């Protein structure tokens, strides 16, 4: 009997599960945890520099606040276009070219390409330092990763902690008491505002559960065994703190999107959820997070690391009910139809509203009063550039993306589904090119002024 015949007989005699395990077994012995930590910590500065060099080449990251406008609690809104143009190019010249000319001459601004994860090949959840520090202070949980840090500067991120507005108690305004709501204080903050079912839903939203990078086994990226991650670690105070991840439902890895953490404000008016917006209810999404997204869509990892499958009829429903109470921030210049009150708005804001509904075509997707159409649109940005891989991320066709609500939009930078646009000014320049609008400089400024009061 030949060697191959004997091997075939041996495999045939094994249970099918054993054959699968042999086929999937790694060819090298896995590193032990101390060795893994040492190697990844040694590599960390190289990847951090790679990402910072990319950001510096693409963007002006200076702290340059806009005059006369701020987020709901007072953090300055950043002003101006931050995406850098190719040498010798202006926005007017670029807008005069056809998509084919931009692509052929390779003039598409690098800042309008997909933004890679801080370490795209590694991926996973990563949190801004201010969230890590406050969470550790309140709950003694450490969301620090030993292999990488968050990449964008604080002044380009949402205010922290964000105010909380409730659809059921608009008379109270911000109910957060200026605190980051966590497991340590949620009951004190909300016990007199929510009913018991809603309060239980909030408790689950601030309770940490095991996740791919934060868990109790040695396949983690925290130095100490971790309780995990809570929903409100990313959606801090039911809003967003710009924490990021890589989309779990795309393969291969180089095509996975860096995931923007969208605000949960106004969730009751939204009808599409998930990175590809394939889920139709917030209950679907809440359950999906635990079953798939927390573990990059790998059920075997979830089983090893401690997935927490939530019960649909009580836990998921309770969580969803609280999320549906989160309201948009006040917009005192808007009337009951979500449009500007001429008696309160400036001339620039009024002109911007006209452009928004007219030449800018923004209202085709972002219709008042909540400035969304609750559907998907394919911008086909790949018309403007040749496929290229940068820092592990392949810039290719993104496909359809969700129409995000624009109510309260000044409170949730950066923008687009992968955080590639640092300011609303960047967003206007991006869509001016993508939609071939030919807006002039004053029209762009007026459009930004309008969006800042939504």
- Helical residue percent band: 25-40%
Judged by helices, strands and strand pairing, the structural class is mainly alpha
Mean of all residue-level pLDDT scores: 92
CATH topology of the largest domain: Cytochrome Bc1 Complex, Chain D, domain 2
The biggest sheet amounts to: 2 strands, antiparallel
Instruction: Indicate the overall shape.
Output: globular
Number of strands: 8
The succession of helices and strands, N to C, reads: HHHEEHHHHHHEEHHHHEEEEHH
Key attributes of the depicted protein:
454 residues; Cytochrome Bc1 Complex, Chain D, domain 2; two-stranded antiparallel ribbon; two-stranded antiparallel sheet; 15 helices; globular; disordered N terminus
Structure in words:
- The protein has 454 residues and is mainly α.
- It folds into 2 domains: 60-113 and 331-454, Cytochrome Bc1 Complex, Chain D, domain 2 (Orthogonal Bundle), CATH 1.10.760.10; 125-330, Cytochrome Bc1 Complex, Chain D, domain 2.
- Helix content is 33%, strand content 5%.
- The protein has helices spanning 3-13, 16-24, 33-58, 91-95, 99-104, 129-139, 186-190, 196-205, 231-234, 282-291, 299-305, 312-323, 347-357, 424-434, 441-451; strands at residues 65-70, 76-78, 245-246, 258-259, 376-377, 388-390, 393-395, 401-402.
- The strands form 4 sheets. It has a two-stranded antiparallel sheet. The chain has a two-stranded antiparallel ribbon with strand order 3-4. It has a two-stranded antiparallel sheet with strand order 5-8.
- A hairpin with a 5-residue loop joins strand 1 and strand 2 (76-78).
- Residues 1-28 have low confidence and may be disordered.
């Amino acid at each position: 009997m030949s060697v191959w015949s004997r091997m075939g007989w041996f495999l045939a005699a094994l249970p099918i599960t054993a054959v699968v395990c042999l086929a999937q077994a790694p060819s090298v012995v896995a590193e032990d945890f101390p060795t893994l930590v040492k190697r990844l910590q040694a590599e960390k500065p190289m990847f951090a520099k790679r990402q910072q060099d990319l950001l510096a080449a693409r963007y002006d990251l200076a702290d340059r606040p806009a005059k006369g406008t701020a987020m709901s609690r007072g953090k300055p809104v950043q002003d101006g276009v931050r995406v850098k143009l190719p040498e010798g190019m202006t926005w007017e010249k670029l807008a005069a070219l056809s998509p084919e000319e931009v692509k052929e001459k390779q003039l598409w601004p690098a800042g309008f390409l997909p933004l890679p994860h801080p370490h795209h090949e590694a991926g996973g959840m990563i949190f801004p330092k201010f969230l890590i520090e406050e969470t550790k202070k309140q709950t003694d949980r450490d969301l620090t990763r030993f292999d990488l840090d968050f990449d964008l500067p604080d002044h380009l991120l949402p205010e922290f902690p964000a105010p909380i507005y409730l659809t059921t108690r608009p008379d109270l305004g911000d109910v957060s008491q200026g605190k980051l709501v966590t497991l340590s204080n949620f009951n004190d903050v909300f016990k007199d505002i929510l009913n018991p079912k809603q309060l239980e839903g909030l408790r689950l939203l601030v309770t940490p559960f095991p996740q791919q990078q934060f868990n109790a086994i040695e396949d983690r990226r925290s130095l100490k065994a971790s309780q995990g991650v809570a929903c409100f670690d990313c959606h801090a105070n039911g809003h967003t703190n710009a924490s990021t991840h890589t989309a779990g439902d795309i393969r291969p890895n180089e095509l996975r999107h860096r995931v923007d953490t969208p605000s949960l404000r106004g969730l009751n008016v939204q009808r599409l959820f998930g990175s590809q917006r394939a889920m139709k209810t917030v209950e679907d999404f809440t359950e999906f997070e635990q079953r798939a997204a927390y573990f990059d869509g790998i059920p075997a990892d979830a089983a090893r690391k401690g997935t927490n499958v939530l019960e649909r009829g009580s836990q998921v429903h309770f969580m969803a009910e609280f999320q549906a109470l989160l309201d948009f921030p006040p917009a005192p210049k808007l009337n009951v139809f979500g449009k500007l009150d001429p008696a309160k708005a400036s001339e620039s804001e009024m002109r911007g509203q006209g452009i928004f509904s007219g030449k800018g075509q923004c209202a085709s997707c972002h219709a008042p009063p909540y400035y969304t159409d609750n559907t998907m649109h394919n911008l086909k940005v790949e018309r403007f550039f040749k496929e290229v891989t940068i820092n592990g991320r392949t810039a290719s066709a993104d496909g359809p993306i969700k129409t995000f609500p624009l109510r309260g939009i000044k409170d949730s930078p950066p923008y687009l589904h992968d955080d590639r646009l640092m300011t609303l000014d960047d967003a206007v320049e991006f869509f001016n090119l993508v939609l071939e609008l030919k807006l002039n400089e004053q029209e762009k400024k007026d459009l930004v002024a309008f969006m800042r009061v939504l």
